[in-house]
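Translate sequence into structure tokens.
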Amino acid sequence: MDFRLTDEQRLFRDTLRSFVDKEIVPVAREWEHSGRYPTEIVEGMKQLGLFGLAVPESYGGLGADTVSFGLAFEEISRGWMGIAGILGSHSVSCFMLARHGTEEQKRQYLPDLATGARRTGIALTEPGAGTDLQGIRTTARRDGDDYIVNGTKMWITNARYADPLPVLVKTDPSAEPAHKGMSILLVEADSPGFEVTADIGKLGYKGTESCEVVLTDVRVPASQLLGGVEGRGLQQALSSLETGRINIAARSVGIAQRAYDEALNYARERTAFGRPIGEFQAVEQRLAQIAVRLQAARLMTYWAASRMDDGVRMDTESGMAKIFASEQALECAIDSMRIHGGYGYSTEFEIERLYRDAPLMSIGEGTNDVLRGVVAKALLAGKATVR
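Result follows.
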């Protein structure tokens, strides 16, 4: 049992920490409130090779271990969680392509995705189907050497930059159970009939776009069927969301860390009744609770990540980490806001952004309520144990 990072992981974290402190922290509040797209930060992430986190070295990526993968999302989210979203959807898609794509698909896309010359995302959710992906209505009808795709996708991160965009479709709408008729197609951005129609307004999670995507009679070559076999789309997506849950858990740790940092500094610097507020017991109690929640969330997240690096199935572990860390992020943000008092509600302080960003962590990559059911079913079936 070793809770220490390796020398390589520590160097990676320190490099990221320096980048975040120099390039993200100074501009995050202003750019987030103005709605400015973080182009310069994206370029910096390209230079660090971060778009290749989930791309194997043989295709030009970093081929990062899962703990390092989590470290990247923790550090970036400490600076600005919305930036992590740009990298998150891209990485989930890269992981899916690397694991399930044909050799031709990997050679065609992964080298450019690794450098950020191409970027991607993943189009699963629809207006009437989010958690219940088997309820999607987007269809892909075979027509000779092509599929003809029709449907609408919602909440698609990176939609305006994704090329290709993996789209979950029904290649056999009559299949029972429904997942046997679901596939993923790699849709090129310049395909006629493919349109990003709207950016969705959000409480938080700004810096990256979340869009509606409409596909109208879009012709997609059959060679763009992920893995080359119909009926495997849902399994391909769900296996990739295991890494997505590590990503969300690590983002949650980053939010909690920043909430702790802001609370600690404020408790030391703010005075009331002639002394720092950190000397008052009520503030001490809140600060200690933030620290406890933060460290517990971090340990659970990197425990789940290390399990994935061990090569074992870890849908239960990643689900547990995502549930716990996301809820701690919100609690830490709230307690940090309370320590700040009225200033915590001000847009001139960082904490209000953390408070707006944190709730999404309990929704993204599977809602916490659904994931509790997943964890419970695995425990009851004996597929996972806690001991």
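Note: The chain has a mean pLDDT of 95.
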